[in-house]
UniProtKB/TrEMBL annotation:
Gene3D superfamilies: 1.20.1280.50, Ribonuclease Inhibitor
F-box domain sequence ranges: 7-64
TM region positions: none
PANTHER family: F-BOX PROTEIN-LIKE, OS02G0160200 PROTEIN
Protein name: F-box/LRR-repeat protein
InterPro entries reported for this sequence: F-box-like_dom_sf, F-box_AtFBL13-like, F-box_dom, LRR_At1g61320_AtMIF1, LRR_dom_sf
Amino acid sequence: MEATYNKDRISEMPEEIVDQILSLLPARDAVRMSVLSKTWQQVSKKLLPPVVSFIFGKDFFKENSTYKLFEWNMRHTIPKKEHDRLLKLVDESLSKALVQNKNKVIVQKFQLSLPFPVTMVRKVASHVNRWLSTLVTRNTVDLLQIHFDECYHDFVEKLVLDVGRLMLRGVIMRKGLLGDDSRKLFCLRELSLDFIYIQDAKVLNDMLSRCPLLESIILRGIFNGDKDFGILQLCNFPKLKNVDINNVSGFSRIHIQVPNLELLKFSYLDWMELPIFCSVHLVKHLWIDYDIIATYPFIDKLISQIPVIESLFLENLKVDPRLRALEISSQHLKRLAMHFVTIEGQEGVINIHAPYLYGYSFKGIQVPTLHYTNFSCLQEVDLVLRPRNLDTLWFINLRKKLAVFDGLEADVTVTIDPFSWVRL
């Protein structure tokens, strides 16, 4: 019986049958099956599609440009014939690798970052649409990244792609961008939208609703003039682990209800004008980066809604003189990092109740006053200070603030930022 179990029956099959079986399997399944037999592995290497990557960006255009001193930051000085030549290079590269190859190709990356001004939008649009059509004809695409720095490009008529990761920058998002049907994009795992112009929140919400298996959502710089976008909804994503929302203050409200979210990051949002409803009980890492005062009550409320939070990063905070203290209370918090931009004359008071806090770091003008109930687990303290006046009084005040760590086993490191302006 033992000899029967160890026998490689696949190796005894005719090669034609093995070829037929592999041809019916998706590429990833065929790779996994290849570990069962040496014969299977040998045949799969012949049948599996080749993996290619296309990166048309700064380095590509510099290497292929007739202008050896071509500077990426001087896009508008490039002659029209040079623009035409760059477009032709991309056409030829895709044609050689995809069009002339009759077999299926796995495109691991397609990264496009074109240095074209507003005057060439229409011409670029026809090329980009043709490239996208070439990509999806017979091929599997893992990463699709389209990046424009200069302006919003209304180049994509329909973007129906079975891609694993989609990253867009400098694009106008209109209704029907993913096609007019309601087909779900089950392959899409990561979505990044940066410097995007949209008509209203419905366009974005419809797009998100068609990607139910997203694991990461990054929204940075979503604009629509002075209009009210409406409500942004991030709900019902069972596999979503990472949400990064940066500079999207045009929405009237943000509603986040994700059961398994692990990392939640807010940056440069107008907390005074933007109500945020969060139902994120399993978030382990919370990052808040903003520069609006009078926002501590929001932080207190948000932390209280996350019982299992392990890391809290607070950056670019302003101490509001009307608020007596910042309250941070969590039974699971292990790391706390803060970067204060203090108001002149305000030191800030922080009350911490985190019995399992392991690491604490702070960057700012002066150390805030800390009150804590239990720091028995604290092992690392890292303070980076940028004083305006480095004198005897400043050092005396620092010593008083550091006394809070006396008697603890924590390693305390104090660094005076050498690049800050100091008056001796």
